Amino acid sequence: MRISVTPETFRLAEVFTIARGSRSEAQVLTVTVEGDGARGRGECVPYARYGESVESVAAQIAGLPAKLDRAALQAALPAGAARNAVDCALWDWEAKHSGHRVWELAGLPAPGPEITAFTLSLDTPERMRAAAARHAHRPLLKIKLGTPDDMPRLEAVRAGAPQASIIVDANEGWTAEIYADLAPHLLRLGVAMVEQPLPADADAMLAEIARPLPVCADESCHDRASLPGLRGKYDMVNIKLDKTGGLTEALALRDAARAEGHGIMVGCMVGSSLAMAPAVLVAQGAAVVDLDGPLLLAEDRDPPLLFDAHGVHPSDPTLWG
Q1: Is 243 an annotated catalytic residue?
Q2: Strand 236-239 and strand 215-217: pairing?
Q3: What is the pLDDT along the chain (321 residues), one digit of tens a residue?
């Protein structure tokens, strides 16, 4: 088995801002595994919040042995972007080599389209209202917040898209006091869920304060090992393949989280259709799907995933799986 890794850059359609900063492009790593007449691909997005860079993740992948399968990979690399790209490439390779789709190999039902959120990045209230109005036809909007001055932004988005369902992502940007103050207003404005309101290392207060609407763990949930620390604090978990370290662990985390009573959200970093394709399998039947990465790009893979009124569709096998 030959494993190669290639850095690639995809331009964003417009600058994307969260509480931690802004970006105008998505920097990804594409992993290709080749052997026995078949070729598979996977993609990851190294994330500085988790101590990753393009260089560090590429080095992790370059250090892998040539003889590798998915089971060995789980022990060879920790959860994170490097393992994600290789794991998804190995799934794709198995599908191409066997002539079966990944969902068949994994023993899953045939997947269908899933409605996905569309994310509005952090901006001034006026610009966020204008963005909400442009996307008011979408059934689900996700708002990036996480500052002490978020109420005007939230009011502006609701005014711009009065009929859309709204979820809020604070990206660890609030304190317990700010969240407690905002929570009644989130309910008043019809917000369905709030994602990671407090920093992951300071979220114990969630077990002590009222949670009048569902709270979803993002930065606080990486893989199955995270679950014991979420009890009593979170109602949902956001499963991202770049956190779980691939499709293999993502499916296991989904099942384990459901067994513990957590609702499921399936999210993404800002990447291409190749990164989203495996996540579509995890997203089947999830309470919230947030796989809009390709919709934020000015350019994408060929062929890209199909997004339409029914949501994000499973991938064509020439893309992945």
Answers
A1: no
A2: parallel
A3: 899 999 999 999 988 888 777 889 999 999 999 999 999 999 999 999 999 999 999 999 999 998 899 999 999 999 999 999 999 999 999 999 999 999 999 999 999 999 999 999 889 999 999 999 999 999 999 999 888 789 999 999 999 999 999 999 999 999 999 998 899 999 999 999 999 999 999 999 999 988 899 999 999 999 999 999 999 999 999 999 999 999 999 999 999 999 999 999 999 999 999 999 999 999 999 999 999 999 999 999 999 999 999 999 999 999 999
Q: Which token pair is 289?
A: 């799907």
Question: Which tokens in the block code for residue 306?
Answer: 């199909």
Question: Which structure tokens are listed for 200?
Answer: 């992951």
The active-site residue out of 142, 144, 233, 243 is 144
Q: Which amino acid is at 117?
A: A
- 144 classed as catalytic: yes
Q: Which of 96, 142, 240, 243 is catalytic?
A: 240
The structure's pTM equals: 0.95
